[in-house]
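Technical note accompanying the year-one report. For the benefit of new consortium partners, we illustrate the data format agreed upon in the data management plan: each record pairs a sequence with a structure-token string. No post-processing was applied to the example shown here.
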Amino acid sequence: MREYVEFDADGQLRSYIGCERRVHADCDHVFRHDGLVYRFDHARADLPQWRAMQQRLIALHARFER
């Protein structure tokens, strides 16, 4: 498994992505934002857009908040 991590300025884990090594594998993507934890799966091919995917999920969630 390949793992990718991002830490915030305080050294706390912000984003974790674990991808299987197969060519057409899926990735397990977990990240924190404003006290919430988001988790989703995506294709390994989409890995270069990981930040954009996080932002889209945050924006989608915000549309459901009051």
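Partners are asked to follow this layout when depositing records. The chain has a mean pLDDT of 93.
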